[in-house]
Amino acid sequence: MNSGGKRVKTYQSPHQRPDTDTVVAIGSFDGVHLGHQALIRVLREHARAARVPSVVYTFDPPTRVLTQGAEYLSTLPEKLALLQRFKVDEVIAVSFTREFAGRTKEEFLRDIATLRPRTIVVGEDFGFGKGRAGKLDDLREVTPNVVALPMFQLTGRDIKSTRIRELLGQGDVEGAAELLGRSYDAVGVVVGGDQLGRTIAFPTANVKVPSGKLLPPGVFAVTVYVDGERHTGMANVGKRPTVSGTETRLEVHLFDFDADLYGQEVQVKFKRFLRGEQKFSGLDALKAQLAKDKEQARELLGV
Question: Beta strands 54-60 and 146-149: pairing type?
Fold first, then answer.
């Protein structure tokens, strides 16, 4: 979802942007969590001092998605919207393929040199090039001004995208929100479903998200944005065992809402965990539980 205002300038290669000096931050920025936000603040401070554009050089998909098969926290449009929110001037979003991952550190350094960086800002554990052979000292071949930030921590623990994935995998959306600095969300288009919810007075919007997007399993109290308007509701992420479902779906029931959403893009923000997905004896038992879920969700959301 676009966060509004002027869109951040985005390129797929450093060779596409104007030939000017910059200050550059490099990384996957998956989720743009509190640690990433701290790095962006340092990036912008150096860019303002040098009076040059602040540039984030990032990878699509994030490196662990390709190298480890991880699900991602942010689609590229979601990441760009977040970087725009934090007032980054430009983004270089390179396509992270196996070919790109196999490039030498020297090839990577030539790409970064194209950006004419006055300063480079990275995490202290940053590595690049095939086998992560490139280290901080190698970056200093491009500019002597390399700022390496220590891992950002909260309550004595490192804030990392891998930890956020673990929390979300457990349905702990509140724990993930603490590390993200905001509620975890998913953006998708409402598509046709089985319409079983209508038969038990709980119609749902079947939200199709891009393949590979991490979705927390369970039932949640949520807020949903439709055309910029905020609505409240509850969501189920799972295979719907009561009706013998076979694929994981994100289905949302909006409170006090009856408009047609088919074909519309919506943003679902996961606020509170209600319960894990479970199999009921039939639709009547499911309906009774959904009524309880709705009452709890309304209470948690204050509506």
Answer: unpaired
Q: Which of 103-107, 192-196, 251-255 has the lowest mean pLDDT?
A: 192-196
Q: Which helix (H) or strand (E) holds 146?
A: strand 146-149
CATH 3.40.50.620 intervals, the chain = 9-158
Q: Would the pLDDT of 198 be above 60?
A: yes
Output the CA–CA distances (angstroms, integers) from residue 16 to 9, 93, 114, in the order listed: 11, 11, 10
Looking at the chain, the domain(s) classified CATH 2.40.30.30 span 184-301
The CATH number of 184-301 is 2.40.30.30
- The tokens 């990032």 sit on which residue? 58
Q: In whole angstroms, give the CA distance from residue 37 to residue 229.
A: 26
pTM of the model: 0.90
Helix 173-180 × helix 161-169 angle, to 10°: 160
Write down the CATH superfamily of domain 9-158.
Answer: HUPs (3.40.50.620)
Instruction: DSSP letter for 145, please.
Output: -
Can you say how many angstroms the Cα of residue 171 is from the centroid of all Cα atoms in its chain?
16
Asked if 143 contacts 122 with a C-beta cutoff of 8 angstroms, the reply is no
Query: Which of 213, 234, 237 lies closest to 223, judged by CA?
Result: 234
Give the per-residue pLDDT at 243: 61
Distance of CA 233 to the CA centre of its chain: 21
- Name residue, tokens 């104007």: 18
pLDDT digits (tens, 9 = 90+) for 105-137: 999 999 999 999 999 999 999 999 998 999 999
